[in-house]
Amino acid sequence: MRLAELSERSGVSTATIKYYLREGLVPPGRQVNATTAEYDDGHLRRLRLVRALIQVGRVPVAKAREVLGHVDDESLGRTIRLGAALWALPQGPEPDEEDPAVPAARAEVDRLLALLDWDAAREVGALSPVHRSLVVAVATLNGLGYGWDAERLAPYAELMHAAARLDLDSLEAQASEAERVETAVAAAVLFEPVLRALHRLAQEEESARRYGIE
Amino acid sequence: MRLAELSERSGVSTATIKYYLREGLVPPGRQVNATTAEYDDGHLRRLRLVRALIQVGRVPVAKAREVLGHVDDESLGRTIRLGAALWALPQGPEPDEEDPAVPAARAEVDRLLALLDWDAAREVGALSPVHRSLVVAVATLNGLGYGWDAERLAPYAELMHAAARLDLDSLEAQASEAERVETAVAAAVLFEPVLRALHRLAQEEESARRYGIE
């Protein structure tokens, strides 16, 4: 398809597509003559992902380029390729090592991983930005005096593990490795608000069931 | 306890406590003479919650005052009091009725609630800001071409329902109704980052188990 059709089908203006092409976020089309390039479904998919990252996830352009570089890196194994793409997404604040709640939270997180037999997560440990952001979140909760320890976190972690299994099952239904990594990145950006809203709606439902509506 | 001790035990400066008192976010102490007031554990708890809302949740002062007004309103039944406090928290963007993805998403959400027998959530429907933010999240996902329907959302909704049961079980362990509502509000602000980090860490763990680490 030509640029005009790519624009129409993706809902992204031709000016914005040209900007994404210049920034290297979308690979160039196949040049058919000096002024015309031809685009395919791969470009359409990539535009969708770029919009998810930049317009919905508010990921800065340079970060998006880094994430997409990992998505496209066929030299990596699947776990590393997925991890690299997801780790490149903006994460929360880093642990403040001056804060006494941080080492205590890290000890609880490590105890949690042992309790759950999450051996890969234990091995990767604080190398993973996700591990570090869990430490920050637990330190914030406990620094304010809400006592969350490994035992209290464990049933929630089990539920999130069940969610992760669903995530990977749906990844595996994708045709190509590139689509699998793209789907994972889109899900990380777009699906989190769905999960948060489902959780809050479930709280309302359960509260009404237990205590009535008045 | 006096103001100095309240400051020391809460980790909030006396200047900030005075500001919260002036703004009506923390109830006044019991005046023992013209210049001295006495504070108790209720004040300490309230300060913790105000910090969670304002410093961690970045809730504006006027919004925080509204949330706390519902927390303190003993005339309301438990579901309404919880709901009013949680609904007053900042929510995501409202559905854009001009966007054709919105009515389609709303139809899927309603079909999801029917599928799950979430009758209270169906009854409250779009009156709930949480319902509306779920519609927005699903519309965004599907507007970008990721096809999520009620059947695909349902197993995630069941997991979030299990999480909501854990949430309410721990609420019920609190001594007073005021503490229960306070705990619910703090959890909404402070526990969501924990849940998000647990989900991402579970994805890493499950990916490493399925595909290895290299």
Automatic annotation (TrEMBL), chains A, B:
<dbReference type="Pfam" id="PF13411">
    <property type="entry name" value="MerR_1"/>
</dbReference>
<dbReference type="GO" id="GO:0003700">
    <property type="term" value="F:DNA-binding transcription factor activity"/>
</dbReference>
<dbReference type="GO" id="GO:0003677">
    <property type="term" value="F:DNA binding"/>
</dbReference>
<dbReference type="InterPro" id="IPR000551">
    <property type="entry name" value="MerR-type_HTH_dom"/>
</dbReference>
<protein>
    <submittedName>
        <fullName>Transcriptional regulator</fullName>
    </submittedName>
</protein>
<feature type="domain" description="HTH merR-type">
    <location>
        <begin position="1"/>
        <end position="70"/>
    </location>
</feature>
<keyword id="KW-0238">DNA-binding</keyword>
<dbReference type="InterPro" id="IPR047057">
    <property type="entry name" value="MerR_fam"/>
</dbReference>
<dbReference type="InterPro" id="IPR009061">
    <property type="entry name" value="DNA-bd_dom_put_sf"/>
</dbReference>
